[in-house]
Amino acid sequence: MKRADALLKLRPEIHQSRTDGLMSPEEFFQNDTLRPILKLQNELLLGLFNAYIARHKGVFNDLTIGHKMNYIDGALQKDIALKNVLKGVVIGQMTLDELEVYGLDSGAYNRRIIGMIKERLKSQIQLLGQG
Predict the structure, then answer these.
(1) Residue 56 in domain
(2) Please, which contacts does 98-104 make with residues 24 or more away whose CB atoms are closer than 8 Å?
(3) pLDDT tens per residue, the chain (131 residues)?
(4) Rounded to 5°, angle at Cα 75 from 69 and 79
């Protein structure tokens, strides 16, 4: 089996994501490629962020929910190494064809990826800092 076929087969199907002709190519790529990859890699993304929390002495656990949200924003804004690892988790699951599309505007796609990761972490905040 080819790598691309294996990668695509692993991805979960996301029924609520629109992938019709009424959206921009960037939105299509986000819904058709990025969302399924993020869903597939969710456990790993949570694990990586929990490891980040642990490396920073667990101050996250003592924060209010609002401050935890700000902590996530700050970490993904300021810590370039963390951002690069999290982006790599997503990019590493792309097929070569998808990587080519990503390369056309990697800056914009990187912003989308990090934004989606932020929202994913925030929506599962109860799973962060648990150990």
Answers:
(1) yes
(2) 98/29, 98/33, 101/25, 101/29, 101/33, 102/29
(3) 899 999 999 999 887 655 566 788 899 999 999 999 999 999 999 999 999 999 988 789 999 999 999 999 999 999 999 999 999 999 999 999 999 999 999 999 999 999 999 999 999 999 998 75
(4) 170
Q: What is the CA radius of gyration of the chain?
A: 16
The model's pTM is: 0.91
Task: Tell me which residue range forms the domain holding 62.
Answer: 24-127
Q: What is the total count of domains within the chain?
A: 1
Distance CA 41, CA 23 (A): 25
Other Cβ atoms within 10 Å of 74 Cβ, number: 11
